[in-house]
Amino acid sequence: MIPEIVPPPPPGGVGAAAAAAAARDLSASPTSSRSVTETVNGSHRFVIQGYSLAKGMGVGKHIASDNFTVGGYQWAIYFYPDGKNPEDNSAYVSVFIALASEGTDVRALFELTLLDQSGKGKHKVHSHFDRSLESGPYTLKYRGSMWGYKRFFRRTALETSDFLKDDCLKINCTVGVVVSATDYSRPHSIQVPDSDIGLHFGMLLENQEGSDIVFNVAGEKFHAHKLVLAARSPIFRAEFFEGLNDEKDEITIPDMEPEVFKAMLHFIYRDTLVDDYVLAASSSVSSISDTLAAKLLAAADKYDLGRLRLLCESYLCKDISVNSVASTLALADRHHAMELKAVCLKFAAENLSAVIRSDGFEFLKENCPSLQSELLRTVAGCEEECSSGGKSQSVWAQLSDGGDTSGRRVRARI
């Protein structure tokens, strides 16, 4: 047994020794750290409309999705209708995920899902997730590196399967970028939860407690609070405290549907859009302007709710296509949605040949000549970008190339 050396007690006796020992204990509080490696996940859906027309473009040639961002990197899905491998003689379609931005040794997990469009849920899934990988995540060395399958699906089987419907394929891609971080623990810490003010104000709306104003919207009554509405909307503030309605306890809204007014109140109290499934329920209507998101955009413009307007713009932006861009552009211009308008103009300029063949473009010609002029200026800007090397093809040259007139932008690449 190794003898222990006991230091003499400090001057002052046993009490002082105990105090010194306590001081040593405090100064030597243990510290710790933890390395956490996890994935930052994101997904993208690539809709390939006009599959039969894409065939025959040649082995090794592909059409690409728009770039999407996951984990700080940009990615794209490449679909090869005639396959990537010359040895297969176009017997298979190929699908790959490509790193579309600058990066070195980017480690990631991937999942490719070909959607079963019969409703049976029998999707074709190739996934790195939820299974052990002997060599760890896949490493992409540089921009343009790809992961995928040269023999993703035999073409003859694909063309008679439930994956192909109305000449359309749908591919879901999930990317999980591997990131590592060191977590330094502190001896004492207090977790502060996220703000729940929206939840509390939402309960105030639902319970109607203390409400002092009633809105009559097409016969349906909505109870609310003047102070809350005035704090959120300068239009309500002027109406309640600067106008003739400051003493009224009921106001009729003549030009809005109850569903739209209810969704607007949801935002005013909770600072969020209504659930996606509520917005999506109206997406099947033939006209963009008849969707709930479009009507809510109009309400945001009427009551000067800037954040609600931007939320609606962001939602409507997701569904811009060749067939919808003209009507969406007119909607954005009508309700001062400048971010959405800029996106529509750029999309229309980049897909000009297809857009001018759409019914919506005829509507623009007849009803919105000023927007046509703005579109021409945007096209001119794209031409300047092209001449400086920013694009591979002149926008005006698209007029002789034809284009996809039935859905989202589809770009052929070699």
From TrEMBL:
Residue stretches making up the MATH domain: 41-175
PROSITE patterns membership: BTB (PS50097), MATH (PS50144)
TM ranges: none
SMART domains for this protein: BTB, MATH
BP GO terms, sorted: cellular response to salt stress; protein ubiquitination
Pathway note: Protein modification; protein ubiquitination
Residue ranges annotated for the BTB domain, each copy included: 211-277
CDD domains associated with the record: BACK_AtBPM-like, BTB_POZ_BPM_plant, MATH
Any Pfam family matching the protein: BACK_BPM_SPOP
Function: May act as a substrate-specific adapter of an E3 ubiquitin-protein ligase complex (CUL3-RBX1-BTB) which mediates the ubiquitination and subsequent proteasomal degradation of target proteins.
PANTHER family: BTB/POZ AND MATH DOMAIN-CONTAINING PROTEIN 1 (PTHR26379), BTB_POZ AND MATH DOMAIN-CONTAINING PROTEIN 5-RELATED (PTHR26379:SF229)
Record family assignment: Belongs to the Tdpoz family.
Name the UniProt record assigns to this protein: BTB/POZ and MATH domain-containing protein 4-like isoform X1
The organism of origin for this protein: Ananas comosus
Gene giving rise to this polypeptide: LOC109712936
